[in-house]
Predict the structure.
Amino acid sequence: MAEKIEIEKASSSSQDLICPLCLDIFDEPTILTCGHTFCRKCLKKYDLTHQDIDHMVCPLCREITKLSANRVDDLPLNVSINESVDDYHAKSGGMNAVLELRQKCTACKLQQDAVSFCRTCNNYICDKCLQPHQYMTMFEDHEIVSMEDVIEGKVSIGHQFEKCSIHKQENKDMFCDDCKVRVCLRCVVVGHKVHNIKNQSDFEHELRRKVTALAQQCAAKKAELEKNIQNIEEQRHEVHTAMQKLLDDVRQAYSIKVKELEGNLQDLIEQINELKRSFEDDLNILKSKDRQRIKSICSSITLVDNDRLGHLETDSLSAHNLLCDELGAMLKEVTDRTTAEVITKKAQEKRFNPADATCLDLGKISEPIDHTSTVAITEKAQKRLNPADKSFLDLGSISGSASKLEIIKCIDLRRRMFGMTAYTHTSVAIVYGSDARGIDIIDTAGGTERYTNIPRDVGYKDIVFQRDSALCVSTSSTEAHVYSPNGSRKATINVDKTGNYLRLNRSPSNEILMANGAKKVYIYDPTGSTLKHTVPTKHRTWQVSSTRSGLIVTSSCYLINPNVVTVYDRDGNAGESLQAPKDVYLYATVDEQDRVYVASVDWKNRKVVIRLYDLDGLNLKERVEFKALDMTLGSTWCYLVSLSPDLLAFACNKKLYFIKVSL
């Protein structure tokens, strides 16, 4: 009896040492912030599919664990479980003991080691049980296989149901979806009457079928991405050919010009090589993205496609279901098949026009006028060679086209605006305060419609739409509400009281960003139920935006003198602030390419100047200062929003402007 208790205890303890992801004994058990433990190698595989974020979402409970620069390698070891694993290996004789050495006879009560398996009885049998199977006529038709053949994989014995610990004679051949445990038929009747019960074999077959389908989709997606990479390489060859032709044309023209132009020729060649390197970098980025997606898909399917899915318990079921869902979403991502061709077309459109024979000049590089909107990656290719003055011994220089802003539509708002956010790439949502109430959707053609999916008689302070058309609206300096697209309220968010209004935005990863004049920024998950970060700021903050890498761009707007714009990381580290002169107010926005636009509103002189900045670490490096725009300023409170790489929206008091960007 004591021996039986000891065996059951050992079996139970080994189950506590199983990783929910690989379904094997823990190898370097690593603990997350939430307390769940996994093999370090399993977490590394899982992390490969999430390299673009600075944290890890637990596969079991979805709680966030912040990662350092070394990511999984810096996560702590679960010392307690690690010691238990070492003890278990010492007692059981190694990792394979759980699979090979523990199997006991299931045909009798002696609990001796099984030496054979009877396919007919569906039982493991010991030496004593084997004898009647060999000599008694009632067992002469029974099919016996040796344990050696079973362990070595020479024969398959099919699925073996575990006996119920409460009802000893019953098989645990059913699965309770509510409790996430396997149960026998009598357990269902006694304790799981109203629960969702599934046949264990059917459930495991369904999961296996799901994993098999995902594996097939992975293979297809991998083949598709590899084909796309091959296409990128073909386009690279075309780019090289076009650039070589451009270089050959320049060399041919040079051969009939005077030798004094040698130095200028080298400058022109270098600029062409710079164009080539630029196109090369763009193609490498596309290729790298597809390679990373292949790596992520392979890593995910390695975790999901596990041949031990038959041993399902609570954590394992949850983890593998979540991994399957994540992998399914990954496979639905659209493969970029067009950008590489666009780069090639731009390279092929470059032309070398020889100069007139009477000029001491080689000529210029030109291209047809493109009246269509191009993707951001081709901006570098839109270059011109400006001929040098004929009195100078110079070829000229390759430069970009003139950068400018153009107001394409000015719209009178029905009342004073309080907040604004992007609704589509060509429209905005405008929020009115308590004197007008409600939300208007306004597009670049001037079309206006009321947004009616949420209560209209509320004086909202600000609004932001999420990618799934859910929205978050603030109603005071401390409270905001999250609504689903159909208008049902999903969550209420409350923050510390500081200013008069709670300003909203969202990050590229769909987080909800909040600022209310305090020296901090609040970052909530997309549902509004979890405060993920509180970022401390050096100045009182009223508006906030985010880059794709998670950097935070803050504006102190009109209530602080001097007015500043500052970039922070998620830990509160700050770059050097942009500082405006007295009575000039700064409003910032980040576009889809992580470029930062800052509107300087000179209230005294009634003038608005917009500047474009590139991010240099945590600092802002000025790229373009556009000419001042002719706009009506009825208030010091303004809003600047990026709708697309070539379209901005600016609102102040009762005026809304749509502004086209040309770079």
